[in-house]
């Protein structure tokens, strides 16, 4: 047994050793592999970290470069803006389209009312003296009415004129139109006496032809229609259903025609002739629909042309606090009191020119008729065609206002009054031209101002399509936009450039640095 054990141990011992060696080798291999893996992982981590660092560094460098570029660009832009600011002169102020009117001075008025007109205008915070003057002249005309007529020609005794006047004070709100009107109207004496139990009323306001006829019945020499705002009255007369009323006023201006009214509730009213002077204020913008209809041939029967004393003066307001000149006030009121008395005691008294006055008026009338005939503008023809008669009317009014001996009125008119009337013709024509120019260019000013206000809402450089897409008020039509762009380029608010990308011409506009967002 012992020998068998020995034999087995001798045989099995090498195998066991061998197994042990294998186990050792495996353990060693495992350890080596673990060490190698650890080394590899460390190397990989190191490489990853290096790559990440490189990427981070690259990103940092990119960011730094971008920041540097941005700063450089900002500095460049600032320098460019400074250079542009230096190269862009200040834009020129865009003024409204106003034509120049004749300067109104004391020589346009008889000496007897010069101080009243100009001192009153000054006292009304430097209101336009033209407003006060027109108010005084229309008020005087309403008092004279049919009591006096002027025969301008020597031989033609059939052509006589009743001195009716229609006056309009044109201006925006707060230009002292109403106080200036009241200054003249207040000179008309209050008539306390009554005729046939009907109180005489020279000045009326908003009335119908029927009620106006009642007033005319008690004032055979005429009355005055006074309205703070003429636009409503004129617009109503423009309506088709008011055609009869429009015809009534056309006749009343000429001092002709008649009006008859039969009512069961009252006595028959019959007025002949119709004599009505008109005075009121109006804003220029409210004249637009009336002038549009007139320019298009509608309502072109001469009603607007009868608004002959239409003035649209400059206004430079200032605060003024002075007392009325009582001496001047009393003197002026006495003139209007005389006109009222003359009207009550006379009817159709005929006045004529002396030789010098007639020659002056005839020369003016001939030149004006030739101007009207040679003009291609039908509206100007209508205006000028009525000026010789207006010149004669004003001469008559100036003459009567200048009478010093109220008990012995002179019926022959001197040349000085005709000269003064001719001055008025030039003055009134200049105001008419201003009004026509204003109404034809009001859209231009509106569009231009609208674009200036919106420049900050446009890109620094834009084109016409960019502007059209905004759909802004007062810039809705291509014409309005074109006009506004042209005016802003002309006055230095914009610079225009034309480029040809892809052989296609493109117009762009660059905004003045002071008006950019």
Automatic annotation (TrEMBL):
UniProt xrefs under InterPro entries: DUF3987
Keyword terms, alphabetized: Coiled coil
SUPFAM superfamilies: beta-sandwich domain of Sec23/24
Coiled coil stretches, renumbered: 15-85
The protein's name: DUF3987 domain-containing protein
